[in-house]
Amino acid sequence: MKLKEEVNTLIKKAFANAGIEADSITVTDATKPEFGDYQFNGAMALAKQLKQNPRQIAQTILDNLETGGMVQKAEIAGPGFINLWLNPEWIAASCQNAEENDRLGIGTRSNPIKAVVDYSGPNMAKQMHVGHLRSTIIGDTLANLLEFLGDEVIRQNHIGDWGTQFGMLIAYLEEMGEEGNGSLKDLEQFYKDAKSRFDADEAFADKAREYVVKIQSGDAHCLTLWKKFIDISLGHCEEVYEKLDVNLSRDDVRAESFYNETLAKVVEDLDKAGMLQESDGAQCVFLEGDEVPVIVRKSDGGYLYATTDLAALYYRANVLGAKRISYVVDARQSGHFKQVFRVAKEAGFVPEDVKLEHVAFGTMMDKNGKPFKTRDGGTVKLIDLLDEAVVRAKAAITSKENYSEEELEKIARIVGIGAVKYADLAINRESNYIFDWDKMLSFEGNTSLYMQYAYARIQSIFRKYGKDVEGEIVIGDELEHRLAVMLLRFEDVLNKAAEDAAPNQITTYLYELVTLFMRFYERNPILKEGVDEQTRISRLMLADLTARTIKQGLAILGIQVVDRL
Question: Strand ranges (DSSP E) for 58-132?
Fold first, then answer.
């Protein structure tokens, strides 16, 4: 249910009934229970326009408010705030509908769009490292979220599979022979060995340069070696994606090479649009207000990332028909995307009604506030990090329950991978964040383990009850009222998170929901003797709705739950 929209509609009708025109009318969530469930503070902004006292405007709104059974009480506070309390019976009925609905009462968009989400984007010359973590999980979450809300989502994995380094790599692969493929299990080492060979042997270096030209000109032998290398490298990525439980497959790959044949046309079309200028032999686009030009073809005829990105934008907007194109790439590329988006719009490659956004994110840091590295200063392989997460999760949960070895392995994987993902998604994506094993694997605080534990605790309640739960939700006290309203706000949170491409809004909501539920669970007995059956059933239904909301919220984040923890 779009709860805030429902409340806004009541306020807008009151304005219309009063004959007051206002550009923007919106309520906010009340910050304290004594302020109600929602608060309208727009009367102050209207005071100058209408030349009236804010409290007088607020009173006029109240006089024309048609609650329709939704609002129990509305009162003026302070200089002109309107505090609104929702009717407990209306809340109970709304929660009942959500409990009986497979989607928790959350609708899908009335006007869905086609959205492209570009994320992960590893370089095929190297193994995935921690630098790929944030793009992969933030992008996957955004794609999951848009899909859940009803948009048609096209996932795009823009892998780096083109360029001069691949001549060196396939020349080395050829030299190693068929039996040498085993060395590709460690791409980092393979790359270092190939580079050492390149630097030490001029004949090998010449061959590597020759192979670059042959790849680009379509030589069958070199392309076969190249495809073999890319296939093995993609296999490494797929192993990471499987461990991370992200929804990227080979069908989602749209590599740099995919756009290679269209790069010349990009330059030609920019020339036709009168946007190209030559500078030191390079073809450039000079944007008004920008000192640094966008170079689309170098003086030696080579193309750049900007050229490929422009080709990709044209393809996504005109061939795929996307109306929202999101690039989940680290914040250091913000200048690049700002320029590329502007060129694409000014050149007509992308229609004006298409939303282009750079979903920027900060850097993962160690406890000393430095970029996350191995002890010897090397790059941390992502697969090693994920394996360590499972090992540490196993240690964190062994004292809680008696698990079979099979159970322990399964739960440790869910908890460990969930901890890594949640810790990343729980912060403002544009911020740098400190990677801290102890914090992310804590049963307390805003962690996935805290959410998973709450879910498991609710499942244990139902195991103890041991019967089917049928009946009606009844709001009995203020704590139940607050929990129920919080549950009804879930759809508002998801829509705002989708609009802002901000997964941390979902994690913040889940943390507040679970914290509130824990308080409810402590103060409002469910299975204890002395609780009448109608109250027990109502509280069980609120608990179930809470568990299902936790599960759905975590599912959007790409995190699983467990029934026992």
Answer: 71-77, 81-86, 114-118
